[in-house]
Amino acid sequence: MTKNELKREQILRISGVNPRKCMKCGKCSGTCPSYDEMEYHPHQFVYMVETGDIEPLLKSQSIYKCLTCFACVDRCPRGVEPAKLIEAVRTIAVREKGANHMKPDDIPALLDDEMPQQAIMSALRKYSKA
Amino acid sequence: MNVTYFPGCTLRTKAKDLDTWARASAKALGIELIEPDNWQCCGGVFSYAKDEIASKLPSVRALIAARDAGQPLVTVCSACHNVIKQTNHQMQTDPDFALRVNNYLAQDKEPTSYAGETKVLHFLELLRDTVGFDELKKKVVNPLTGKKIAAYYGCLLLRPGKTMQFDDPENPTIIEDFIRAIGAEPVIYPARNECCGGYVALEDPASAKKKSSAVSASAASHGADMIVTACPLCRYNLIKNGSELPVAYFTEILAEALGCKSSASAAESLGVKEAAK
User: Fold this and answer.
1) Under CATH, what is the fold of the domain B2-122?
2) CATH of the domain spanning B133-270
3) Interatomic CA distance for residues A37 and A66, integer angstroms
4) Is A14 exposed, middle or buried (0-12, 13-18, 19+ CB in 10 A)?
5) Percent of chain A clearing pLDDT 70 (strictly above)
6) Could you tell me which of A103, B36, B42, B235 has the fewest CB atoms within 10 Å of its CB?
């Protein structure tokens, strides 16, 4: 098994998503509030994981633009759950040594007086390994 | 009636109004909110990776505290509710996850195990299903008559719909029914269940601005006087990004209607010049 195949297997396993259920209607990307900010869109995540084109996804900033709002999950007519796949790709990316996308030391500069703790906790959970 | 109450990190600090008026309103409704000892932060977001175990233990421990007290676990923050409810669901439905969590719990000073027994209720569900909106209506002493209120659900209360089981994720009614119960008029608008941008506000405020301003503009264009939410981060994003309408927590208008909040202080915290009578 190549490193790429291994990563694909990990993504499928920790997401629990079966990309082959996708009928390529594009509703996930159509409903995605972060579509404009993403280089690869939700439907492309599904297709590229299915075909094993993993590296471009791991390197793309798109994995940090997903809001995990689950619009794509609830609105997918085939129950593919693209957001879970995007989260799995991001998880595999930040679990690499030294690959945390956000570090605690980055936080103070990003704060203002009203920023709720919830935002800090959520961002660290999403962008860094636990 | 006694329930276990999980306030969460933000309600201790930036979202004190959400907590204070939940407590005052519960008291007025004859519900005792009992905080478990030594609860820990839920983490703010649920980790969907099936092999994320340790980060979900604080939620499991809160669920155990409620089970051991023989009470439902009540949350008021949308994020805490989403994380704890999804963790409970995973304990019920994913045997591999449950086994790994229980391996941790077996090492506690007082070993325990958990299988998803606790009922998780959002404060709004407590109002709808336990108190009942008809009963709530009878306890209103200061109805918010004539006030047009836009309910902002966002994502966390509703999705994933199959797990949250909160309301119809595309056409929810619970907050509108709550608004009617306290004598105000709900305003239905298209963006009420769209995302405010959430935690990307920290790293990419421009992205959050785009989403939040679309929500507040949608509510304003449908004739609302104010927006209510259950989520500190939704409230922050809407206000930070220039909502022309005041944004309050649902517990503030509840406390006002129940008469636990003087109309002067209510008006001040709701950002309106004159409180509705």
Assistant:
1) Glutathione S-transferase Yfyf (Class Pi); Chain A, domain 2 (1.20.1050)
2) 3.40.50.11810
3) 9
4) buried
5) 99
6) A103
Structure tokens at A113: 């007086």
| B195 contact residues in A (CB cutoff 8 A) | 33, 67, 69, 71
**Cβ contacts (< 8 Å) between A91 and chain B: which residues?**
47, 49, 52
User: How does pLDDT run across B130-164, given as a tens digit for each residue?
Assistant: 999 999 999 999 999 999 999 999 999 999 999 99
- Predicted structure pTM score: 0.95
Q: Which residues of B touch A70 (CB under 8 A)?
A: 155, 159-160
Say how far apart CA B22 and CA B17 lie, in whole Å: 8
Helices (H) and strands (E) in chain A, counts: 7, 0
Identify all chain B residues contacting A130, using CB atoms and an 8 Å cutoff.
47, 52, 54-55
The answer to whether the CB of B67 falls within 8 A of the CB of B114 is yes
What residue ranges do the domains of chain B occupy?
2-122, 133-270
How confident is the model at residue A13, as a pLDDT? 97
Give the DSSP letter of residue B186. Answer: E
The reply to whether B133-270 shares the fold of B2-122 is: no
Helix (H, G, I), strand (E, B) or coil at B11: helix
pLDDT in tens, B222-248: 999 999 999 999 999 999 999 999 999
Helix (H, G, I), strand (E, B) or coil at B4: strand
A–B interface: beta-carbon pairs under 8 A: 139
Three-class SS state of B275: coil
Tokens 């007025």 correspond to B28
B274 pLDDT higher than 70: no
Smallest CA–CA separation between A4 and chain B, in Å? 19
Q: What 8-state DSSP symbol labels residue B29? A: T
Distance from CA of A36 to the nearest CA of B (A): 9
DSSP character string of A62-116: GGGT-----HHHHH-TT---HHHHHHHHHHHHHTSTT--SS-GGGSGGG--TT--
- Rounded alpha-carbon distances, angstroms, from residue A35 to A43, B74, B154, B179: 11, 35, 18, 33
Question: Which of B11, B48, B167 to mutate against chain A (most A CBs within 10 Å)?
Answer: B48
**Residue listed under structure tokens 């909106």:** B133
